[in-house]
């Protein structure tokens, strides 16, 4: 047990789906055979979610508030919660005996609490008290409402770990994508496609694959423009910025099988076919859309999500961070029907990366 990595799991927005899916994920005994999970959040929220899970799904778990990692027991059936005491029972609307959506949506209180949970897991990881951090969803609007002006988890982690060169990796099964830019306008995203940044992301992609045990990664680099610019007819970014970055990366020994930018309308199909281990996307939606088409499965006949899968990993940090790849689900939070698969996938990645880091 003592050789298993400690995973610090931030609870996410207390009025979102984080508490519920955390309960559901930790109801699987096999998790405790692979890691030592510790929830960082509020015991009041977790206790409410536990009652809802018992009512709706028959899950019976106890919540154990603690004030330090050293107090954690990591016993299946009892969830250790590093309790920050930011949310009280009176802050939580509704009745767990009659579960229904909270209906609160974006709130300053939820944003402040979610932000503090993230800061705490970062602090614990930077102090080597935990081996990896796993994040539930927060609301960008809510944390900004609370006075914390960040565009998402990735930027919070970069700031609090003093990291200049980093990128987001999305993963679902063997499909992995990293991004040259993420939370900026599309117009600004085009302006950010510069040789130095593209090269940095190629390097991070290569290192990120190695961090999860892929010894000789094959990297694809997507073009920015339709048909990769068609030799300058539809744009010159491929010629002036992306190709020079590819040439520099290959000179360093990084494997880019195509040796040139790959058209973005075919690169993901090839990646699914095993041509590449990871794809460097030029902007947020270029990478996010194919991952979510693959990982998010809606059951039209039954009117619910069969799967909300996928993992968001921040590469380039001095600590490990993996996250769910979905939002807070405010519209359904509190009703007991949130899907925990993405959190389970994120924990799997955190465990893999922690073991790989420990092995050097």
> Would you give the CATH topology of the largest domain?
Isopropylmalate Dehydrogenase
| Class of secondary structure makeup | alpha/beta
Mean pLDDT: 94
CATH class of the largest domain: Alpha Beta
pLDDT below 50 for ≥5 consecutive residues: which ranges?
none
Oligomer: single chain
Query: Could you state the CATH homologous superfamily of the largest domain?
Result: Isopropylmalate Dehydrogenase
Q: Can you summarize the main beta sheet?
A: 11 strands, mixed
Beta percentage is 15-25%
How many alpha or pi helices?
Answer: 12
Spatial order of strands in the largest sheet: 3-4-2-1-5-13-12-6-7-9-8
Give an overview of the whole structure.
By secondary structure, the chain is α/β, with parallel strands linked by helices. It folds into two domains: 1-163 and 318-360, Isopropylmalate Dehydrogenase (3-Layer(aba) Sandwich), CATH 3.40.718.10; 165-316, Isopropylmalate Dehydrogenase. 38% of the residues lie in helices and 17% in strands. It has twelve helices and 13 strands. The chain has helices at residues 18-25, 29-32, 43-57, 108-126, 140-145, 153-160, 186-191, 195-211, 237-251, 264-272, 284-295, 341-358, and strands at 6-10, 36-41, 62-66, 78-83, 132-135, 167-172, 175-179, 219-221, 278-281, 296-299, 304-308, 311-315, 321-324. The strands form two sheets. An eleven-stranded mixed β-sheet has the order 3-4-2-1-5-13-12-6-7-9-8, sandwiched between helices. A hairpin with a 5-residue loop joins strand 12 and strand 13. Helix 1 (18-25) crosses helix 3 (43-57). It is globular. 49% of the residues are buried. The model has no long low-confidence stretch (mean pLDDT 94).
